[in-house]
Amino acid sequence: MGLWEAMRARTQPKRNNLDALFLVPSAAITLQTALGFEPTGSGSVCYRSAAGAAFAQTQQDVVALLRDDAEAPQVSVSEDDYGFTWLVVTGDPGDMSGLCTDLHAVNTTLELNGFDSGLLCSMVPFANASGQRFGLTYLYKQGTFYPFSPSGPQSRDTLLELSVRDLLADELPMEPDLQRWLAVWKAPGL
User: Which of 25, 55, 159, 168 would give a disulfide with 50, using CB separation of 3.0 to 4.6 Å?
Assistant: First the structure.
């Protein structure tokens, strides 16, 4: 930040780095070997829908783009209790690269069509043999990741979240501010 920006108390907003999604497949290997968590094969993008035909067409286009893929993952769109839309992609759990490419395509398409202000996060769920689950969550506006692990209707497994953060700190840009670790209750796949 320059002197003039500091005097006016203005800062540049942090830019996201959607290419960070392509780091998730190697992080998935680390999670499998160190903690026994495996990808579930699904992933999602959460955003606030905009009114109008342009947004509806963009959403239809991105769904068609994903369905036209050679491996054609399952794609569904739903709305949660808070009014956010979840576009969920489900495919082969062993194809993390393909899943991350699909999530990147959804984010990029919404961004390029001017709907980036509504993007909230992308999530890739993981589970272990004992039934524990967490979502590796990418905060669009921060360009960082954090783990979210619900352990009940309104409770979370903080110990697991911190363990995942510490394990992946060298592989992914992790969100340092714990207050930004949103509780994404009822997220698809969790």
Answer: 55
